[in-house]
Amino acid sequence: MSSAAEQEAVQDPAGRAVEPGRPPGRAAPVTVRTEITESGGITAGTGIAAATEAVRAAPRAPVVWPGAPMPLGARFRVGPDGVAGTNFALWAGGAEAVEVCLFEADGAETRCPLTELTHEIWHGFLPGVRPGQRYGYRVHGRWDPWTGARWNAAKLLLDPYARAVDGTFTLPPEVYGHMRDWPDQHVADTVRDERDSAPYVPKGVVVHDDDDWAEDRRPKTPWADSVIYELHVRGFTKLHPDIPPELRGTYAGLAHPAAIDHLTRLGVTAVELLPVHQFAHEDHLLRRGLHNYWGYNSIGYFAPHADYSASGTAGQQVGEFKRMVHALHSAGIEVILDVVYNHTAEAGELGPMLSLRGIDNRGYYRLQHDPRRYADYTGCGNTLHVVQPQVLRLITDSLRYWVTEMGVDGFRFDLAAALARSMHDVDMLSPFLAVIAQDPVLRRVKLIAEPWDVGNGGYQVGAFPPLWTEWNDRYRDAVRDFWRGALPDVRDLGYRLTGSSDLYAWGGRRPYASVNFVTAHDGFTLRDLVSYEHKHNEANGEGNRDGTNDNRAWNCGAEGESDDPEINALRRRQLRNLLTTLLLSTGVPMLVAGDEMGRTQGGNNNAYCQDNEIGWLDWSLLEQPEWRELTALTARVLRLRQTHPVLRRRAFFSGRAQAPDGLRDLAWFARDGREMTEGDWYAPAATLGLYLSGRDIPGRDARGEPVTDDSFLAVLHAGAEPVAFELPGAPWAERYELVLDTSREDQAEPPGTVLDGGTELTVPARSVLLLRVAA
């Protein structure tokens, strides 16, 4: 390190160093150098001309041709005079200079200046740089956290457009842009750390996109026919006995015939993968010997997470992911990605410097009125500033890449309300939603919003515009409350079972705008929902303080696992009730992997850091008859749903006859066989009859013919004792055939009982009966 003149510092009344002219109480960076280091590093206060000159003088730098500013990222191609190489392009709006750094297998680094600047994009073409090359960026500029400027060229930065990432984020002190262990922690983020982070951070990898998608056929399943299966790539395959050990926990494992066979036998139409963008582990987890398992901590929006690759991490993960998508498509299964564009793994001002913070902190993140601090609508320390054009471009470029080059069929947006914020408030005319609506690629794929964030006004269920579907947590709450006997009346349940028209019947939206779910990755599994009333998250190391307390669960009489056969039989019956209710409801059902076979997390309702048997799917459950029966029931109800269009309507119910000689498309019945009155909806009820007319389905098929189907009566009874239910007679039905009875353990064959209209039917305690109107 060469000698450097240090600025004179004055002190505020508290004894903190202050730049001359800075208001008292605002501590400046403790060490602010104004010279160039031997390694080419540039410190605060250096002008762009001097910075560029220093970078040009960096040792071992090969020839850099001007290249092109678009596309962003590292793209291998044939350059001038037919010379093969890689074009590097990085948006870094406020930077003073940028180096692309190439790394050999032994860690040797070659720094190459990008001296061309076009519309705030630094770019250059490096002849001879080929796929497999590991690289990163060093970005030079001012260090002044008080104004939001946090450039630090000592830190190697991941390319936001990197197609593959090699290495693991371990977060030692060297990867922080500030002095993480500074004694005065309340100003620690203002003290620049001059140590080189390159030996400790993963590198981007140049990838050549040469896969041929000509033979791939997207299933293009209509929304109304869709059944979503939420799964974790690693957790779904890690313990599967029929997948080769070397493929378990990987994309190749999910592409294996044994994994796909379960999905097809079950009858789901789409898998929704928990985050597969490259992500990093949080420091507080690493300190406890844990890891981020779910992956909601993204740092690379173009790169498949490297740890899920069986074939290698020097670009091979890209091809492996594509082959997985192709295998699922060949089985008729769509691939939906759970994506986290609302925040990054760099956290708040005390977080590491991995990518965007060091490229242009003010350009990528929402900052508070005090620009040293981050606006946090996500609960994760930072929020991407989607209103900024470069951030919006990063997100939409990423989305298009995963559709056009990686083959995926849709996205579920984590904390989507944060993306829909304009300057502060959630705005359904926001730039993000407007761009998606007009984009010729993105408006044609499946778009699912988690319609809330943690900021003021962030709860937006029912508010997203047409093209979007939404996770409907009001469905989850109503169904859970009904089956545990906690609903004050049945008004809300009626809406939830029939597509939630109170939320979605506007702007041309359809019932499939509602993604119905009883469980999700976040919370209890279905089995735990009927086995625990309280969370048991001690394994997370947070004193059982993490995870929600609003579980709306009922343990059937004992907390946790039980040896009581009556309690266990009741729990299995409740599982059948919950699954059947979900799969018969109007809207798009979402199952969570393993719920159909009784998976448990031991009462942990926040297993985000449990990359172990707690979080993995236990396939040995299928060796137990009671859980095989539950899986068979799930598959059977899904076949019913697929066979009968009346169970997957494309339009909301009207409560009126669609034809002069028809019945009303929907009717509700009380236990005594009469239609429910307005007063009935405001009273507590444990028993509900729902009549769906197959003669009165609005719309026509692909040939323009009317859609007709059988009619059904579903009876839901959440009471602890059997009840008598009078079956509606003419004109609703002369006779009924019993198709499904969840009180039965054995669901191999339909009951087949035929009953006359007007018959008083005994409905078993806590059960769902489905009856088909017989000819």
Please sum up the structure shown.
Residues 1-39 are annotated as: Disordered. The protein is of the alpha/beta class.
Kindly describe this structure.
The protein has 775 residues and is an alpha/beta fold. Helices cover 20% and strands 19% of the residues. It has 17 helices and 31 strands. The strands form 8 sheets. It has an 8-stranded parallel β-barrel with strand order 14-15-18-19-20-21-22-23. It has a 6-stranded antiparallel β-sheet with strand order 24-25-26-31-28-29, covered by helices on one side. A hairpin with a 5-residue loop joins β1 (10-11) and β2 (17-18). α11 packs across α12 (491-497) and α15 packs parallel to α16 (625-643).
Helix and strand topology:
Layout: E1 10-11, E2 17-18, H1 48-56, E3 73-78, E4 84-91, E5 97-103, E6 109-113, E7 116-118, E8 121-127, E9 134-140, E10 143-144, E11 149-150, E12 164-166, E13 203-205, E14 228-231, H2 233-237, H3 251-254, H4 257-266, E15 270-273, E16 277-279, H5 283-287, E17 298-304, H6 316-330, E18 334-339, H7 356-364, H8 389-404, E19 410-413, H9 416-419, H10 431-438, E20 446-449, E21 468-472, H11 473-483, H12 491-497, H13 501-504, E22 514-516, H14 526-529, H15 565-584, E23 588-592, H16 625-643, E24 666-669, H17 678-681, E25 687-692, E26 712-717, E27 723-726, E28 735-741, E29 754-756, E30 760-763, E31 767-774
Parallel strand pairs: 14-15, 14-23, 15-18, 18-19, 19-20, 20-21, 21-22, 22-23
Antiparallel strand pairs: 1-2, 3-4, 4-8, 5-6, 5-9, 7-8, 9-13, 10-11, 12-13, 16-17, 24-25, 25-26, 26-31, 27-30, 28-29, 28-31
Domain Glycosyl hydrolase family 13 catalytic: 230-641
Region (Disordered): 1-39
Keywords: Glycosidase, Hydrolase
